[in-house]
Specification:
By secondary structure, this protein is mostly helical. It contains 14 helices and no strands. The longest helix has about 40 residues.
């Protein structure tokens, strides 16, 4: 993954201290906007799932199978996006994915069956997966260039974007059809991309200092990477997967759980994910302070344990207020697990470690919803959602086990 050599040189030579050069500030603003847009569009889609489910007459299992289209599209694209970023640059790929994501958000509202919905979500998932990988790659480059741990702030922007998307979606659910709502989201996405895309393209990273053919012993794909390091990078990827599973499950099933099982109104049902996203965003804004006070391993353990307790309450609570409280606690607990896991993989194995852990993590976010759908038909939706608590507890256990596996524990 290329570094922002010019930004690093300006920072060290002209600006010094902790002040980033203007180009880095502009790039950080643009990246923040794209992360927020990513969360905004995704949340805008997920809060309309109950309406689209009703429109096409899908069962929980058929809806879960259709949602697998998002997962399949994203996983296929994630495998290819790394190569595209290497060839064309993460900034350019990210901008094009932003355009595709904005256009594809309008597609699911036009589905007439579960099969059609799944095919349309395949396109949406491809854009979503590509944008996530490209934006995270660009963010890692910026963190390396300005030498400040600002990665959690980008994930906070995603969470706050999701909160805004869910909140606006809750209002729109009572006044607009899914077609009108998702079309407005598409227009919003294209507008943000038109404004911020040129900033990304003007601040493109320089070519790597080393030749592309030179092996990097910090890259998990390098033949010089030891099997032990590969295993540790995989461990952090699994931790990221465990927490992202919960984020994806709540994004696509919390509104249905509140409306179907607890008989909440459409606006209140949409507020469930909005509250979860708000708690996660606040948790990520305070992530640096938590890491400095408790350390990375304790942050992983406390976060996973808290998320497990919160999700048990959120999934099994008999009333809407208690369920909402559980979702909020879950958001606070999960907030920093993903950034810490990805950061530790990167500290151990460089950009390749970040890419590997991120791909596994986002895979969990996208696999979670269809798994919840099948379990909901087999058991019930509340019982299916308890798997989020199970995996959060697993993340805590793996986080504790990793304390001697890598630096910065």
């Amino acid at each position: 993954m290329p570094h922002l050599n010019k930004l690093r040189t300006v920072r060290a030579g002209e600006h010094g201290g902790d002040t980033a050069p203007p180009s880095a500030d502009r790039l950080r603003t643009a990246l923040t906007a794209f992360f927020a847009l990513d969360g905004f569009l995704f949340a805008g889609w997920v809060v309309r799932i109950p309406a689209i489910k009703h429109h096409i007459g899908a069962s929980a299992s058929s809806l879960g199978l259709a949602l697998l289209g998002v997962s399949a599209g994203a996983v296929i694209t994630m495998v290819l996006t790394g190569r595209l970023c290497h060839r064309f640059g993460s900034h350019r790929v990210g901008v094009w994915c932003g355009i595709l994501l904005s256009l594809s958000i309008a597609l699911p509202a036009h589905a007439g069956s579960a099969l059609t919905l799944g095919l349309l979500l395949l396109v949406f998932g491809a854009a979503y997966g590509g944008m996530n990988v490209a934006m995270n790659s660009a963010a890692v480059d910026l963190v390396a260039a300005i030498r400040r741990p600002v990665l959690p702030s980008f994930h906070a922007a995603f969470s706050f974007g999701g909160m805004a998307g869910a909140g606006i979606g809750g209002i729109a659910a009572s006044h607009l059809s899914p077609v009108a709502h998702l079309t407005l989201l598409a227009a919003t996405g294209l507008l943000v991309t038109a404004v911020m895309g040129p900033v990304m393209l003007r601040n493109t990273p320089d070519a790597p200092a080393t030749a592309p053919s030179a092996p990097d012993d910090r890259d998990p794909s390098s033949p010089r990477m030891s099997p032990a390091v590969r295993r540790v990078v995989f461990l952090f990827g699994v931790i990221a997967l465990c927490t992202a599973y919960g984020e994806g499950a709540l994004a696509e099933w919390s509104a249905l759980h509140l409306s179907q099982d607890l008989h909440a109104t459409p606006g209140t049902a949409a507020a469930g994910y909005s509250l979860f996203a708000l708690a996660m965003g606040v948790g990520r804004l305070t992530g640096t302070t938590l890491l400095e006070r408790f350390g990375q391993t304790r942050t992983l353990v406390l976060g996973g344990t808290g998320a497990a307790a919160g999700m048990l309450l959120g999934s099994l609570a008999p009333t809407v207020p208690l369920a909402l409280a559980g979702f909020a606690v879950t958001g606070l607990g999960l907030a920093n697990i993903f950034p810490v896991a990805v950061g530790r993989a990167g500290a151990l194995a460089g950009p390749g470690g970040v890419a590997a852990a991120s791909t596994l993590g986002y895979g969990g976010m996208l696999v979670g919803p269809p798994v919840i759908g099948f379990l909901a038909d087999w058991l019930s939706l509340p019982m299916a959602l308890t798997t989020v608590a199970l995996l959060a507890a697993a993340a805590a256990a793996l986080g504790y086990a990793s304390r001697t596996a890598a630096p910065h524990a």
